[in-house]
Amino acid sequence: GDKEYARGYGKDIISSSSMLGMAIARDGGNLFTESRLEEIRQRMERLEAVTLQWKDETITWEDMCGLNSVGSGTTYEFPCARLSPMDLFQEARWSFNENDRVTWHNEVVGKGLVKPIIPRFGIMSQYCPAQCAHRIGLRTSAAYAVLSGYDESYAQRISLLGDIASMEMNDPCKRCIEENFESQLDLLTAATKGSFGLFAFEIQALLLGGTVTDPAEILDLQTRAGQYAALSRDTTRVQIEEFFLYYTTRGLYAQFNLETYMNSYSTLVDLLLPGCLADTSNDLKCPNATVTVSEAIAAMTDHADGPFSSHNTAGTPFPWWSSADGTGKLFEGEMGVSGSGIDLSGDLLGMAEYLDLPNFQTPAWNPKYRGAGGFPADTTDPLWLADVEDDPIYKWFMAVYEPDDSKCVNNPLTGTETASAAYDGLTAAVMGGASQSWCTKYNVPNTENSGEEGSYNKQYFSKMWYDLFIDTFLDLEQGVDDPYTWTLGQGCGYELQGERDAYTNQNDSTILSHASRELYYVDEGTSLGPVDRHLLMGDVTPNIDDYSMENPLEEVGVIQTIYFAGNPDGLVKKVKNCNRPNGQIDDMTYEEAKEILEEFKKKMETEWSQGWDDDESGEVQFVFFSDDAGAVGSTGQVLRDMTLNNSTLVSISTIIIALFSVIFLISPDWIESRVLITLIGVALVVLAFFASLGFAILLGTKINVSMAWTLPFIIVGIGVDDVYIVLMTLKNHGGYGERDFMQSMKELAVPVTMTSMVNCLMFAVMNISDIPAVYETGRVAVYSVIALYLSVLFCFPAYCWLDMKRQAKGYRDVFFCLKASEKDQEKTQHGKNSRQVWLYDKFYHPLLLGSSSSSRNISHAFVILGSLAMFGTGIYGITQYEVGVGLEDLFPTGTQVHRWAVERTESLASWPIVTNWGQINYTDPITQQKMIKQFEDVVNTTFVSEIDTKRLWMSDFLIWSTRHCVENFDRDDPNDRVCGMDQVYEEEGAETLCSGSWMENTLGLRNKYIGDGTGDCEPFEGGHCRSVSDMFPEDLESAGHNFATDSNDTSYCPFVEWSDEKFLWCMTTWRNKTNFAGGGFVFESNDATPTQCSGEFYRDEKLMWPIPYSTTPNMFAYGLFTHELTLDLLEQTRAFCDDDEDLHCWMQGIPYDYWSQYTTAMNVLIELTTVSTAVGFFVAWMFLFVKIVSEKRHALSKVFWGTLGAACFIALTIIIGLVAVIGLSVLADVNVTGFSNVSFVLSVAFSVEYSVHVVSRWLRAPNSIVSSVNRVEYTMEFLMLPTFMSWISSTIGVVCLAFTEFEFIEVFFFRPLMIMMMVTYFIGCYALPALLCHVDHEYFRLGKLQTEEDLVEKDLVEKEDTGDDIEEIEKVIEEKGGDQDEKEATIDSPVESDEMEKIEEKKGGEQFEEDATNDPAVEFDAQISETKGDGQ
User: Fold this and answer.
1) CA pair distance 1337, 1208, nearest whole angstrom
2) What φ, ψ does residue 1127 adopt, rounded to 5°?
3) Helices (runs of H) and strands (runs of E) counted in the chain
4) What is the full DSSP assignment across 784-830?
5) If 0-12 CB within 10 Å is exposed, 13-18 middle and 19+ buried, where does residue 515 land?
6) CB 1261 within 8 A of CB 1235
7) E strand intervals along 8-72
């Protein structure tokens, strides 16, 4: 099936392992209080600090977790990913250490926000004012925002940065920005490299021309030429983009800080101007009382362009100081303090204009220096100074060659130095308070860390200043802030520069209100999207679907944190990572990693659940669960414990059965006693069972809980039953000779073989089930029945023969070396067993076979009516059946994991799931659309949490191939464009692009939700298809959209239609370029190219082609509070996937792996019981028919109908027993499951065990016993003791199950098996004989022939076999008929017990008893032998 197919590619489990830590309010109240949230926070901190010693290494949670990076090279430098309601609160920031905060600052904010957005802001301002006018107006003018239908709070200038990132690619503003960004950066790169190259060329020409003769000038020119050549050669697009970032930041300074500057100016002037004006020294240059906008902008621009200060690096833009380095005095000059150190004023690309670079190498080339005497030899030339030296790019890149020994310092700004100490004190205090402290320990060199002296230049410090300015502008501090104190504004309810709410010092209602927002991972949904609240919070008021910021939470009773661990293979690779804090581990194997993962799960469970059952241990109860992905988790451990925990009860059961057997077979007559042989028989049965179990293990079968808790207790009982049959046959037959032994073996061979064959086939039928618990148990049971049959029928008789020899020679039982005295030997009795007397003569016979027909009929009526009552109750019970066993049923009560399971079922019923595809035609456009449709249909079902279509690999791949690809926005290497339309594929000598197309949405796929900011925030995007208004015009044209005739509501979806070779190449390129980690693909080999950091790899593995397997990202199913709801999930999702005949996929995850069996549990049970019953019927019929036909005693037609009827009685017994057992078990709260099904099907074995022995002996009773009642007496007198002993021994085994510590075992094994033991014994040994007492027909008399008429019949059979005249046969039978009827009427008449004794004496009671106990076939053979011996 699908699971086996996936297993063939190593994809049979979800790739990551989930561990679920649950927190529950002990008092059933609200968890979201300050004290309880702090208790949860502390427990989480302890959990994530768990370590494990392996060899000489310390394994940490950072090693084990599935994800702790934010890009290449950052593994171990970011906190482990988790999903938790605690992430709503700022206090959860404890998980970020200082190094993690630095990584977040550099990788998330720096590379994800600052680097791509700020340069584009410059493009928007300079090149796209018209296209972006509406967007700019909304963010810069409250009046315009209101006029456009927005709230006035929408007008926030800084939000333009977020808009640049979130605008759709087809938005005219975004399109203008992207097109100009790429073109302008390309232009700047080419112009910069070209200009410096031409400078180097012109200087070389100048030197070669010989016009410069001064050595100093020559040296200067040579130096400059070398610098220019290096810049031309080495300058990259990355460096140009970096320059443009800082160049744009310079412009942002004035644009975004104008209002702040003017307000601060006014405040400071109000404080300090009076004192300045009052100074009599006339040395102070007091500022103006007011400042104009142009003056403010000039001041801030001058500040950015000012010299870098090693006194106060942040400085100030106010132009009031005498020195720009921060050491001058206030109001003694007109300079601001500090700056970037590079003046970026001037005309951008002035040097290219100076060189007339666009026309270089063309006839039109006319550089400015051509008419001014040629290229200048020095830098004092006015044109050079005006066009080149004043070019911001020239100044920026030449700054690399200006060494600088500055430091980043946070000293306070200086005040005045006047005659007034009071005023000087005031200015010092005010300026000290106004001083900014930008520098951190990460800005090297600084006062604490001198760095590498002599290795820094002017550009280095300029970058430092701008980076610090950006942090200040964004109100961000490196190494201090994290996602909890500084938000990106990506998620609903979060603003750029905002922070997550704190619970410390907050009342309950405030905490609950703050927690009513959408929940995200720390990246605010950029990687995972919103986290579905159903997964993490339960027992909430209002309903979990209804609460919001407008309708806030009132109470939260349960929360859950989901931790993700990697798989063993991932751990082996991860610990080799170059960033691992404790050093790389290169020698860990897969098996070792699996053991480590299992042990780590145990340690985390122990740590989290500590004190769970101690009501004094805090206000919060902590319980934990781990899945079995990668390594055994909570469920696997419990099943393992259950499976291995049966040894004590198995031993006790075996000992009790042995003792019981001894009690029933011991005798005061030490010669006739059979204690030792009984123990040998029990031992052989036990050895045979465990031998078969070992054989199954050698064949690869894993012992499961079903076979561990049924077979040792049931199979041993079945085997011991056959041992009793052997011993009782030998005892009842009497004698110690070889003929006695052989006759006994012949007598018991038929029923033992038949029951074993039926049981074997019945257990084999269990293989039709696809439930491992059923078919694996069935297989082991088959092996066991075969082993028991061989042991009991071929091995045990050898010991019995030896024991008969012991008896014959008068040796004692047990002490077989001691011979009994002659006196004791003379006392040896061969009469009835006293236990048989009590069981049969004193109890069973009077109860069921009483001498009075009226009393007998009454007892039969009660017995049969009782059976029918059980049957009727069973039918009713079956109509009330429920399916499934929940984890709360599986886990032992009184354990923390059981508490978790109970709460999960009641409050947080969710599981991770995925959808998988096999080798479908991925290159077909229609298949692509159907695949996405299946994903969306599954997501849209009732129980599956929302997830955007773009998370599916096929959707991501298709969008990548279109103009809507966003991967170029924040690519690592500006020179490497990563979208599909940038990738060139050579095919048959032609170059094509990995570009997709658009088709009309005919399958009803979801459109992408694109909001305009006026409504409520929508946390999900939905689909990836687009309406006409959200498309590029070029795409609409290629899709054939006709604006005149087609509706503007038409939706279009992306697709690709390439050759297999191109699809594979583009797909490989897509994975590598975008670093896409999903899809679950299969690779030819794990030969990915390693990165510079060992243990990390590029995603360029060779994909297996055709693609044999792919999968969705993890989804979550929630709301599965009952088995029925879980089955509804399976039905709903499989309708779109597993049941889709057009495009097959299959669902996977715990609900499918665990609950799938329950979708067909009842059908499987019906199938198993039907086939088992049919097998029992057919095999019993065939065996009886063949056996009796082979004896050639009766007419073929009589044998046919007689054995058919007998098989019907056996089948009837099976059916009544099955229905009663199943129905009564259901009424005893036993759900229909794979486990209970095994117990139910076992009832067939016991029904067969009893009914076959009873019906076979009754059918083959000597024909001299004509009355049906007497035939039942003949049958049960022999079978009562062994069947009773068998029932008791099997019941002993089942009773032992009641003493298990696992309630699951008690419910799903003890209850149905105990009901089975009672029902099958009652029906097989009471109801069936009662029924047979009233079945009196010639067809059922198939025993040995003794009367003259019987011999005539035998002759007729022989004639029939040889083809003699049929009419003659019929005539003889007709002549017999009347006499026979008369005889039967006589024997059937009631006979009192004393009269029966007289009849027996008259017939010869001894001979009658022998006839009643000996095998008819053997005796008949003996008679024929004696007849032949007489020469007749």
Assistant:
1) 15
2) -65, -30
3) 52, 18
4) HHHHHHHIIIIIHHHHHHHHHHHHHTTBPSSSTTSBPPHHHHHT---
5) buried
6) no
7) 17-25, 51-54, 57-60
Question: What separation in angstroms does the CA of 1234 have from each of 641, 706, 875?
Answer: 19, 8, 20
Give the per-residue pLDDT at 1406.
Answer: 39
Burial class of residue 701, CB neighbours in 10 A (0-12, 13-18, 19+) = middle
The tens digit of pLDDT for each residue in 793-818 reads 899 999 988 888 888 888 888 877 77
Question: 791 is written with which tokens?
Answer: 């042991």
Tokens of 440: 């951190």
Q: State how far the Cα of 1078 lies from the Cα of 952, in Å rounded to an integer.
A: 8
Which residues are within 8 A (CB) of 766 and not within 5 positions of it... i.e. 6 or more apart?
A: 774, 775, 777, 778, 779, 781, 1168, 1238, 1241
Q: Taking the mean position of all CA atoms in its chain, how far away is CA 982?
A: 37
**Interhelix angle for 1311-1322 vs 1234-1259, to 10°?**
20
Ranges of the chain with pLDDT below 50: 1348-1354, 1356-1432
Distance, in Å, from the CA atom of 1130 to the CA atom of 845, rounded to the nearest integer, reads 55
Cis bond leading into 445, ω under 30°?
yes
* 975/1410 Cα distance (integer angstroms): 105
Q: Which residue has the tokens 């390594």?
A: 631
Backbone angles phi, psi at 1246, to 5 degrees: -75, -35
What is the CB neighbour count within 10 angstroms for residue 579?
18
d(CA 725, CA 745): 10
Separation CA 837–CA 845 (nearest Å): 10
Q: Rounded to whole angstroms, how far apart are CA atoms 782 and 762?
A: 9
How big, in percent rounded to 5, are the helix, strand and coil portions of the chain? 55, 10, 35
pTM of the model: 0.81
First to last CA, the chain: 69
Query: Residues of 110-145 as b/e, b for ≥16 C-beta within 10 angstroms?
Result: bebbbbbbbbbbbbbbebbeebbeebbebbeebebb
Identify which of 779, 48, 970, 1345 has the alpha carbon closest to the alpha carbon of residue 787. 779
Question: In Å, what is the CA distance from 98 to each residue of 77, 244, 442?
Answer: 10, 30, 11
Residue 980 DSSP code: G
φ and ψ at residue 244, rounded to 5 degrees: -65, -35
Alpha-carbon separation of residue 1099 from 74, 650, 786, 1058 (angstroms): 16, 54, 54, 22
* One-character DSSP codes across 859-926: HHHHHHHHHHHHHHHHHHHHHT--B---HHHHSPTTSHHHHHHHHHHHH---EEEEEEE-S--TTSHH
How far apart CA 1260 and CA 1185 sit, in angstroms, is: 11
Tell me, what's the pLDDT at 674?
A: 79
Side-chain-side CA neighbours of 28 within 13 Å: the count stands at 1
| Peptide linkage before 542 cis (omega within 30 of 0) | yes
